[in-house]
């Protein structure tokens, strides 16, 4: 059912009012767990907007629903431009706003009055989190509602007759839409003239000042008469200049979806001194107006005073008779946990991360065959865990352990990235024993993390030190490395004894699963000591542990001398040595994760597969980074050594 566009709201009784959401209309058909999500022109939306489809699958109702799929900004306002560019959950908060119920439990509801359909719809809530009920306002002034919508920077409002029936495919006067055009002053920085045009000019090139610089905000091609254009051309003549006044030169011949072959235009640049007023639909994410129209010149405004205007957040809306309406119209988006970066359908996707375009390919390739986890699953994991893992990777040279065909394919280590990594990737030089100059890769942000993962680097293996102090590790490591003859209960016992040793000398230790067979224990040093000092300290700890558990532990470096015992390894504390980072995936069955633990979790019953690609993010989001103290103040090693001297 479609709404009729009108130029002003009606204040007649018997009407309810809703926000006009700026998105894609969609009908959802739910029956016995089967779900269809279709557009107005019967195109399937299940794949394109997969989070909505997945949420509907979890909603165990039998119904046909009418609503709008939108992408919301932090204030809760829908953005059509953001929706058009949406490819995955990393692109914005996708919401399915429902406003009508057409069928329920085998009954056709289209011939019930709207007010009754709404009441039945409300009873179906709560729904899964990204499905919301579009609030309907009754017993309110349409004028006040429109005014509140204008204050918030919305596209418009919808008015619906409470007694209206649902007529599929018809545009009726029982539903009305009232659009709001936003207005803004802009500075004229030039004009264009299309090839073979008879008009004085074809469009105005305009912008606003930000920090003293003119930022381009769009091209105005409508709203002025020929007479106005001739008058404006007279004002333009003394302002003509050779160079663009904008910070970046506008692409005036850029094709659009509706004009793939625009007429060739030539720009004439003007000194930015004239101001005009423009109406427009919205500002896109890159700061350009959609559907701008010229409203008139503003001789009362100085160009230097024309700056960027932003919509008032809902929490700061002006107090007025519509204030109550204003607060209920929108639900601000609360920044939550990260979701997917890559959608589940496209095998190759290009995403912009930290201003760098990354091409993710072969996304359907299975990396863990037994569990059917794909390269896409791995990349989505690293995108979600990036805020937690990056502190342990940033500015630390990396040894790439690459599995281009998954954990059962051939793998190889890559240390040197000279001439192979993009220019924006940071590197750290090293000199080989054969006299060659090479470079380690150094992650600095999540773009470099995802670049490594895209190469098939399933696990992240950083140095213990950063490039700012390469000879001073940030932590001391005790690596408990069992053999096939050892049980994991023995590893757990060894970790507990290590904790006892650390407690006895009053220093903290933080443990994590290796994600493979062992447990890693970290002691914070804050880069205050050399690798030699760190290793000697680690040796003392390992020796104490071995003395307590001689039956099944060893500190022998040579494998044959360990006799099948758990190796209490302190030799990881050396320059250029690497170990799987906290929160790193491992190329092991089950897609295990090297997971930080609370010490009270290190007990009988702990299993490596307890933490994997499917459940790690939920745990991390709930607990936060419990390993964070490893990067903290660090111990006073000299003070500790004085306490343990005989």
TrEMBL record:
EC annotation from Swiss-Prot or TrEMBL: 6.5.1.1
Organism (species): Chitinophaga agri
One GO MF term attached to the UniProt entry: DNA binding
Entry-linked PANTHER family: ATP-DEPENDENT DNA LIGASE, BIFUNCTIONAL NON-HOMOLOGOUS END JOINING PROTEIN LIGD
Domain of life: Bacteria
Broadest EC class assigned to this enzyme: ligase
Ranges of residues in domain ATP-dependent DNA ligase family profile: 87-221
Cofactor (UniProt): Mn(2+)
Official protein name in the record: DNA ligase (ATP)
Catalytic activity annotation: ATP + (deoxyribonucleotide)n-3'-hydroxyl + 5'-phospho-(deoxyribonucleotide)m = (deoxyribonucleotide)n+m + AMP + diphosphate
Entry's transmembrane regions: none
Entry keyword set: ATP-binding, DNA damage, DNA recombination, DNA repair, DNA-binding, DNA-directed DNA polymerase, Exonuclease, Hydrolase, Ligase, Manganese, Metal-binding, Multifunctional enzyme, Nuclease, Nucleotide-binding, Nucleotidyltransferase, Transferase
Alphabetical GO biological process terms: DNA recombination; DNA repair
Lineage, top ranks: Bacteria, Pseudomonadati, Bacteroidota, Chitinophagia, Chitinophagales
């Amino acid at each position: 059912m479609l709404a009729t566009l009108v130029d002003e709201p009606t204040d007649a009784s018997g009407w309810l009012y809703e926000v006009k959401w700026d998105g894609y209309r969609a009908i959802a058909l739910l029956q016995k767990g089967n779900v269809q999500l279709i557009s107005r022109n019967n195109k399937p939306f299940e794949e394109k907007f997969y989070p909505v489809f997945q949420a509907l699958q979890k909603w165990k109702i039998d119904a046909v629903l009418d609503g709008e799929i939108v992408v919301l900004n932090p204030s809760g306002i829908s953005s059509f431009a953001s929706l058009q560019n949406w490819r995955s959950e990393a692109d914005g908060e996708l919401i399915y706003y429902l406003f009508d119920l057409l069928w329920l439990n085998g009954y056709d509801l289209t011939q019930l009055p709207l007010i009754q359909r709404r009441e039945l719809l409300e009873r179906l809530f709560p729904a899964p989190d990204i499905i919301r009920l579009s609030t309907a306002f009754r017993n309110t002034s349409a004028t006040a509602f429109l005014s509140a919508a204008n204050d918030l920077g919305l596209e418009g409002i919808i008015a619906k007759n409470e007694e209206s029936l649902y007529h599929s495919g018809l545009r009726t006067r029982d539903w009305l839409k009232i659009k709001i055009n936003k207005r803004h002053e802009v500075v004229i920085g030039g004009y264009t003239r299309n090839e073979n045009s008879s008009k004085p000019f074809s469009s105005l090139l305009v912008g606003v000042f930000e920090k003293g610089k003119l930022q381009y905000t769009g091209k105005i091609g409508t709203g002025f008469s020929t007479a106005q254009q001739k008058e404006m051309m007279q004002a333009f003549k003394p302002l003509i200049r050779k160079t663009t006044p904008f910070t970046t030169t506008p692409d005036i011949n850029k094709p659009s979806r509706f004009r793939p072959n625009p007429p060739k235009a030539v720009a004439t640049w003007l000194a930015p001194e004239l101001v005009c007023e423009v109406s427009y639909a919205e500002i896109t994410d890159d700061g350009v107006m959609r559907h701008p129209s010229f409203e008139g010149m503003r001789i009362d405004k100085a160009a230097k005073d024309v700056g960027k205007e932003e919509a008032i957040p809902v929490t700061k809306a002006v107090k007025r008779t519509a204030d109550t309406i204003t607060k209920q119209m929108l639900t601000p988006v609360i920044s939550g946990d990260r979701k997917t970066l890559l959608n589940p359908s496209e095998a190759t996707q290009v995403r912009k991360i930290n201003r760098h375009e990354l091409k993710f390919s072969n996304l359907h390739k299975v990396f863990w065959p037994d569990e059917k986890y794909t390269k896409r699953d791995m990349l989505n994991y690293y995108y979600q865990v990036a805020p937690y893992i990056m502190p342990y990777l940033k500015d630390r040279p990396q040894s790439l352990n690459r599995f281009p065909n998954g954990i059962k394919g051939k793998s190889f280590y890559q240390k040197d990235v000279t001439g192979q990594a993009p220019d924006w990737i940071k590197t750290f030089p090293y000199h080989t024993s054969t006299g060659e100059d090479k470079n380690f890769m150094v992650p600095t942000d999540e773009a470099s993390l995802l670049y490594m993962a895209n190469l098939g680097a399933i696990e992240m293996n950083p140095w213990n030190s950063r490039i700012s102090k390469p000879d001073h590790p940030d932590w001391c490591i005790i690596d408990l490395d069992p053999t096939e003859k050892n049980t994991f209960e023995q590893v757990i016992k060894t970790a507990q004894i290590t904790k006892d040793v650390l407690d006895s000398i009053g220093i903290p230790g933080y443990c994590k699963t290796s994600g493979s067979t062992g447990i890693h224990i970290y002691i914070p040093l804050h880069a205050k000591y050399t690798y030699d000092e760190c290793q000697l300290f680690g040796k003392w700890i390992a020796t104490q542990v071995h003395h307590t558990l001689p039956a099944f532990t060893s500190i022998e470096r040579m494998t044959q001398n360990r006799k099948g015992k758990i190796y209490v390894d302190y030799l990881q504390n050396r320059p250029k040595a690497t170990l799987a980072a906290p929160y790193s995936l491992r190329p092991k069955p089950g897609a295990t994760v090297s997971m930080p633990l609370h010490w009270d979790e290190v007990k009988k019953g702990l299993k490596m597969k307890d933490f994997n690609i499917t459940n790690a993010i939920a745990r991390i989001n709930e607990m936060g980074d419990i390993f964070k103290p490893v990067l903290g103040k660090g111990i006073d090693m000299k003070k500790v050594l004085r306490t343990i001297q005989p």
